[in-house]
UniProtKB/TrEMBL annotation:
It comes from the Bacteria. InterPro entries: GreA/GreB_C_sf (IPR036953), TF_GreA/GreB_CS (IPR018151), TPR-like_helical_dom_sf (IPR011990), TPR_rpt (IPR019734), Tscrpt_elong_fac_GreA (IPR006359), Tscrpt_elong_fac_GreA/B (IPR028624), Tscrpt_elong_fac_GreA/B_C (IPR001437), Tscrpt_elong_fac_GreA/B_fam (IPR023459). This is Transcription elongation factor GreA. Residues 820-893 form the Transcription elongation factor GreA/GreB C-terminal domain.
Amino acid sequence: MSEALLKHVQELLNEEKWTRATLSNYSTTQFKELDQILKEAKEKRANEDLKKLCDEHLSHTKNSIIALYLSGMIAISYQLIDDAALVSLITIFVDNHKWPIVKYLCERMLDYGESKYALRMLAECYQNEENQEAIYGVWERLVKVDYEEADIAKELAEYYEKQGKTEETIDYYKKALHRYVNKKLLINIREIWAKLLELCPEDLDFFLHVQKKVAKNISEDKAALLLQELYQVYRKQKKIDTAIEILKIILTYDERDSLARKELVECVREKYAKHSQLEEYIKMSNLAQSWRNVHEAIADFEKHIAFDTGNFVFHRTWGVGRIGKVEGDEITIDFAKKRGHTMSLKMAVSALQTLAKDHIWVLKATQKKEKLHEKVKDDPAWTLKTIIRSFDNSCDMKRIKAELVPGILSTGEWTTWSTKARDILKSDPNFGVNPDKIDEYIVRERPISVEEKLFNQFKAERNFFDRLQTLRDFLNVTDAEPDSEYFSEMFNYFAGYLKSYNQVNEQVIASYLFVKDLIGRFPYLNTGLHFNFAELFEDIEDLPGIFNALKDTRLKEEFLHHIKLFIPNWADIYIQLFPYALSSSIVTTLKKEGYEQKLVAMTVNIFENYRDLNNREAVVWLFKNVREDDWFEKTGLSYEKQLITLIHILDVTYREIENHRDTTENRKINKQVHTILFKDEVLDTFIDRADRDTITRIYTLIDDVKDLDPALKMKLRNRILNKDPSFKFFGSEEKTVITRGLMVTASKYQEKQRQLQHIMEVEVPANSREISFALSLGDLRENAEYKAAKEKQEILNATVAKLKDEIERAQIFDPSTVNTNRVSFGTKVVLHNETQGIEEIYTILGPWESDPDNNIISYLSPFGGSILNRKVGEHFEFSINDTRIKYIVKSITAANLG
């Protein structure tokens, strides 16, 4: 049926060409008839053939109205970026002033999504109709999709201002201001800045954000001019704290600004008018003297001004104290254990840290623990604000935990509480992310929208893929098409990777996939790119390397999907990538598309070449995920062969770990194989049903794995003997082999873990507070408190490192595997001292359990090493202080480790 449609269109094209129909003959009626053809082509799934026919016609008749329209409409119905055909068509009718047709064509384009070109031309149509209201409606749509359009945003703001619609007015003025900053048009910037100061002076965060962009994009001098105007507004409103902060920023841009410094001194006098030592502290800090560095003077003044009657301070030894009185150069302080303590102001400034009344340390010192405990549990938001503000309004979760656990909350209570706290930090508009430290949180003076919070997080992120996820989160919370300046800046970050790159890397690939997805959802985001995935893929030099570097699961799947869609030999590429991707979708797709033989060959190759690092992990994945699939049988890999390969991988990873080759990867693979063979009891199950020859092969391989825990070998040996008591093991009788690991009892292992946890969660945070306080005292050269705290830090770090190393090397002894045929770990041995004629009884354990006074000795000690592996009746000698003592082993029993 589509043949008839195509024949009809061909006839129309021929007629158009032969009759040379003039433009004056065209009206919207003709295009509505063409729309019927498009509808029929869609129903008959003939769009591709129709577009091909029209494109071929355009190759020799470039101004064919019919071909341009049909080809262009099909292109945009596919959500393709290329709208050249329709642009050419509209241009023809614009040049001939056929505005009704231009309007119809623009509206048809916009049926498939917003288009900057179509909206501009539609506005021009309404201009010719003198329909001003309609123009404003189109402009609103245009400003949402054209992030560079500033003049129209300004006109919309003025339009709504005349109508008294304040919210819309402010929104469009803000859009215009951001865009003028990007264009570096200072006159326009100052005009709209002044207008917004009249309309929304309270929106401090917006103004500070804009001035930062001005400082970065234009100059710090121009930013300072804008801040002077902002300062005047807050000064008149008597918002002194904010006025001071603005002046500090101005002085950051130009520390020699005498006017700003003079204003700062006046603001300080107003803020601390009731302070008993105000003028004295201004004089001491030289805040009003131009010769003193202004930032040093401010820091000096702020350090002194906190010392006044009723204020709280902290001393590393005496804790929290309250200033009783200040008389001249002498301060009297009441500490909990040292009341009425006096010191000079100079000494106080050096030795004490000032605390706000609501500082968490003050609350701990002045409130009952039970009351504070209930407040913290019941009100996580208040707790977060209190702690974050206590530490210069920037704090991470680690510091928050250190303040609460174990002093206020137990470890168990913290687990539940911290989950609620993280949700609050993420969703509550009163909290934000520190722009300079992504893992630290701040308390905001004014609530912030979720969109702005995510934008700030995006700016603070340093990792490409973290930024990508943040933009995803941004789109999820907006619940609509993005039209904010925040989105524009984030989107352009990724689009920028595609506009200028010398080499295709993971960021370029990720940006292409991400941007293409966004353009599919919002077609007006046309970035003007002129290359496709196949061209990009052709320039990839290290395909596995780029795939591994795509640190985003969704992008990896999308990358694989694009390879299948656009690369002819996609199946071979899937085979090449599988050891790096380990994706079930690769296996499923290859089988579904009829490439089962390739899949079988790939699997055999992976098992045969298990020594390759990537293939090792692939063997594990295949064993765990697909060995039960019907196609896997065609590999000819028997279950025994699979297990033997896993044992070989266990051995080779141990060796490479010992030789420090790809240690992290080998540890991961080794742990996976270890879990399969022993924890999941795959070997045990196989041994139970295997014949004697098979068992011999498997056990021999296991026995040859040098670094495998001897207890596991012994356990497997015992299982074999339980099944077949007459089974003969080749080689020498099993001995206790001491590996690089540390054999320990379960109880001692738990004790060491508790010790490490206490140091990390209690002693280390306490030491960090001591160092922070000591640093606040100034000169480190003669700071005894700082030196003592640092020495303690070194001791703690060394202890932690030693404990972590021992715990990592520790191998927990299984009492059920104790071997009493020889002296070994976990045995109790009776020795006859032939030299002195007495009996001696020893328990052989590890260095953690060693207790010589109670005859518990370590197998790593000289005497323990001498006894190890001895049999009953065996004679041996041991030297102590040049005295040789003769022993005979009388008996060996299992020690009581309960």
